[in-house]
Structure prediction request, 223 residues.
Amino acid sequence: MSEPHSIDITQWPRRAAFQFFRGFDKPWFSVCTRLNVAALKAALASQRVGSFWLAYHFIAMQVVNQTPAMRLRFTADGQGVRVLDLVHAGTTVLRSDTSFAMLTLRQTRGYAAFCAAAQPALETARALDSPFLPVDTLPANEGLIHTTTLPWIHFTSFDHARPRGVDEDVPKIAFGRAEREGARLLMPIAVEVNHALADGLHVGLYLQALQAALDTPQDWLAS
Prediction:
């Protein structure tokens, strides 16, 4: 098992920004936009594996793992930056009594394998007597991206709840209800990051790469 490696802050181009935003009481910022998921919806009609929800989570997290800025976290002392090898989606699932639970959607190399691993995790989380938080643990070189879905709302902004006194370094992604607009099927997405670790450039590059992946979903669902 490998350990997450650290960035040499003295040589990091973002050194000044890192040191500047580390002192902020609220260093997080969120970008909200819409992505065209029409091609993904069409591809799933013939795929017959998983669901729309699982498919966009899979692709979104595949692109996250190809975006170094989304895998950055603070070192234990808070003064440095470490790079994780792999991140998974820590997400939410609705239960039959209208409560919700959290679960981990572990990333895999292929979409079919991802869906196969996700199904028992979903069933466990949906059980009314299961823990609110998942009990699984991740290796030291792996971590989470916090995600959530509001399928009832085509939102135009989003803000996350946060625990008091926690130095939060985990990026967060929210997905909303997709709506038709001509030939396009537009889904809101909000991406929130800690400004000490990432800038608007990095969020923009991630969203551009994600849209490109959603435009060619067959390349991702078949891999």
